[in-house]
Amino acid sequence: MHPKIKIANSLKLMTASATIALAAGAARADFDRPGFNFYGVTGAIDTPTALDQPDGEIAVTIGHFGNITRGTLSFQGLPRVQGAFRYSKYSGLNLLGEPEYEDYFDRSFDISVTLLRERQYLPALKVGLQDLAGTGVSSGEYVVATKTFGDRLAVSAGLGWGRLGSEDPIGETGTRDDIDAGLGGEFNIDQWFRGDVAPFGSVIFKATDRLTLLAEYGSDAYTIETGNDRPLSSRIMDRSSSFNFGASYRVNEAVDIGAYYLYGSEFGVKLTFAGNPTRPPVVGSVGPAPAPVAPRPSRASSPDQWSEDWASVPRVQSALLTALTSEARETGLTVEAFEILGPNAVEVRFRNPTYNASAQAVGRMARALTRTMPSSVETFRIVPSVDGIPASAVTVRRSDVEALVLSPDASARLLAVAGIGDARGPNPDATLSSDLFPRFDWSVGPFVRRVFFDPQSPLRFGVGLGARASYEPRPGIVFSGSVSQVLLGNLDDTDQRASSALQPVRTNFARYNEEADLALDRLTAAYYFKPAREVYGRVTAGYLERMFGGISTEILWKPVESRLGLGAELNYVAQRDFDQRFGFQDYDVATGHVSAYYELTDELDVQLDVGRYLAGDVGATLSVTREFRNGWRVGVFATQTDVSSEDFGEGSFDKGITLEVPVAWFTGRPSTSKVSTTIRPITRDGGARLNVDGRLYEKVRDYHEDGLEDQWGRVWR
Fold first, then answer.
1. Alpha carbon distances (Å) from 522 to 314, 447, 478, 549, 693
2. Which one in 202, 418, 447, 480 has a CA-CA gap of 20 to 30 Å to 192?
3. Which of 110-114, 203-207, 513-517, 538-542 has the lowest mean pLDDT?
């Protein structure tokens, strides 16, 4: 049959599938959380569908069949956009031709966009790119349509290119180069939607609320895995049919398991763990209730309590500080300094070691002030402080707090009359808390150190014991350090050595893991300050991270009410000895960046850093982060410098995923602790930046206008 006729027939098949839906209604709730395929993206068994996950859905899918194991992290980053990072192991497949690589490990990124949502008479339509910036081993593109029938049945049909167009193609759209499993990491835009095109389709039937039956016609020939004219010893699976069948079972809200028969010869299993920032394990907060607001007596009934003479009493500022410190401690806050601005106004600077919602901390401090201040004090200026930096000033009238605490829509009404603005620098007239300064903190506890996607292993880890300590003689001056001892793990079980055209600033991580016994992770002195209105500063010196030590300076301009922030960082550092004690190697470098931070929406942030990196290369890093109101943050970043793809090595350029989850989301209890990680497909030397603690933007952003307003619903809690 002529290719054009084949394409026409395939399009007719897709159109017919949509036309059958004329008698069906819109998508039902049963498909609001569809399953994931073996590639770890929304789909049937091995093919994609046009169904969408709930906004914010994060899933880890692990699947195995035919000597192929895939692990995928997927994220529904926007209501119509899903992204995924995949790590695959092809056991027994040596594409590189090197004896030390008996198995082939591949990393790949996917993205899909829903162009049309399902309507009463029309299917949903999605376009996707698979392995868009990898080696090309898994690369493919697709367009797929899905229509649901009632609340039990979903039918999909689509066209695929690349891998998804390799079985019984019906035509072609241009030419496509052969796969070259080389450096990978580049966007092969000129290959997208080129070459052979083949149809695929699937049927998903929800037999019960937990059990789903699936059947599909796949268009992936698995040419490489079935031999591809190589010796039979390179074959890692058989393929005798294009039809796949299987069943999946939803164990609970977080876990799906599945078993499948694929391509007429292989049995497969799949396990998916799914979660969503909007579905916490613990619903609601289980922390202590706030202290009640203490209303003042009326001026007419108690005129003496409204007297302003108290403001001239000697040492009254210290006495009120003591009372406020005690009250604040009961609610989980720490008073840093207190100042009487007159008989009608006071200012308190405080630290929040307890609440992940910044507005909740402000609200608790406002309650404490109503319980401790003389009746004549009408204005509360509440200043959150982070490492001695006054982040912002929230001004509220006491009468508003008293009047609104029990009113309907109290949070919105208080926000309407509150003022959020820039905070002053340190004032010598303020009284510092003697309970806080000088301040010494220490902790000892276990830790887990992870190395992802070593070319010879997907995960290396070490478990050990670490100790931290800090000393703060006064606000803004912090001496801190940490040591660690790995007790068990496989961090040093590798023969991988740095092989780079650049100075090995990161690729020698294996030697740092091997040669460090009791390691000095950090030992620094830091000074945080506010030199001018809307400007913040930092100077840090010492052993800044595991691999580098020196001096780091930073300045940040960030108006409290603005979505835009601008910063500059300048560092001069030397590479530390592999034993991570006090010595240095011969390499030193001046590195630094200018940065722009912008909040595109209430949930989407973008950051651009331009400058010089640790290996001396010059370029820029673009980061895009989705932030949820409860503190979840999921982001992606990419760095391009003046280093060529060949000199950079495998991966071609630095890129990765960031994930940050507040501990309070897991426990339901107030906590400022967070669990965070950065996932890179591979660690190379190009685009490597210094890992210094205390960067300013992250310290102050939650207490600026947008950060406070996002959390303002918790101000009364």
1. 45, 15, 13, 9, 9
2. 202
3. 513-517
φ, ψ dihedrals at 411, nearest 5°: -65, -50
- Find the DSSP H helices in 138-183: none
Q: What CA–CA distance (Å, rounded) separates 301 from 18?
A: 76
- pLDDT digits over 605-624, tens only? 999 999 999 999 999 999 99
434-467 residue pLDDT tens:
888 899 999 999 988 877 766 666 777 788 899 9
Quote the CA–CA distance of 327 and 331 in Å, as a whole number: 7
Of 511, 496, 508, 341, the residue nearest 431 (C-alpha): 341
CB atoms within 10 A of CB 233: 9
**Phi, psi (rounded to 5 degrees) for 258:** -150, 155
CA pair distance 523, 480, nearest whole angstrom? 6
For residues 451 and 453, what is the distance between their CA atoms, to the nearest angstrom? 7
Which of 635, 448, 449, 459 is CA-nearest to residue 107?
459
Q: Which residue has the higher pLDDT, 358 or 645?
A: 358
Other beta carbons within 10 angstroms of residue 599's beta carbon come to 20
Query: Mind spelling out the 3-state secondary structure of 70-97?
Result: EEEEEEEEECCEEEEEEEEEECCCCCCC
| Structural domains for the chain | 3-275 (2.40.160.40), 303-435 (3.30.300), 519-706 (no CATH)
